[in-house]
Design a protein that fits this description.
By secondary structure, the chain is mainly alpha-helical. Helix 3 runs antiparallel to helix 6 and helix 4 runs antiparallel to helix 5.
Length: 167
């Protein structure tokens, strides 16, 4: 709840923090898929990796929304702002995610007993970031478009209501 409030204040919106927070489950999907793929059990260490994944995907979503808002504030239509914001952030998001996955990959596939407790952390981080990035690049623009559409429809409904019932 505190995260939501902290996001709502700078965005000046009650819907955009929900878009940012909606990416957290995407990281969990990737982490679970990685554990299933490698035949690992979920552990406390896995949840520690999920915290790291959440930070990375939240940052990616925050920056994407920020760029979309900047383009919209500069006069672009919401649709064009979503496209431009997504295009501008695409390379940075993909490169960050790939380097994160490649950075933890040696640990994910480590067979040493000394690293056994770190494999679930690395699996959560690596696969969580990889899968969440792919989904994030689709989900965030779609939710942003939905948010703009809802805002526009509500604005029209309020305008019609005010037009029919003068004060």
């Amino acid at each position: 709840m505190l995260m939501y409030v902290l996001l709502a204040i700078p965005f000046g919106s009650w819907l955009q923090p929900l878009i940012v927070l909606a990416v957290i489950p995407l990281g969990a999907i990737g982490a679970l898929a990685g554990h299933m793929l490698l035949g690992l059990d979920l552990s406390v260490w896995s949840t520690q990796g999920l915290v790291g994944v959440s930070g990375v995907v939240i940052n990616d979503a925050l920056m994407m929304i920020k760029f979309m808002n900047n383009f919209r504030d500069s006069g672009m239509s919401p649709r064009d702002a979503i496209i431009a914001g997504s295009k501008v952030r695409f390379r940075a998001i993909v490169l960050t995610s790939l380097t994160t996955f490649l950075g933890v990959a040696p640990l994910v596939f480590e067979t040493s007993t000394y690293a056994k407790h770190l494999v679930p952390v690395a699996t959560s981080v690596g696969f969580g970031v990889l899968v969440a990035t792919i989904l994030l690049l689709l989900v965030v623009p779609a939710l942003a478009a939905l948010q703009y559409d809802v805002r526009e429809r509500l604005g029209r409904a309020v305008a019609r209501t005010r037009g029919r019932h003068p004060r």
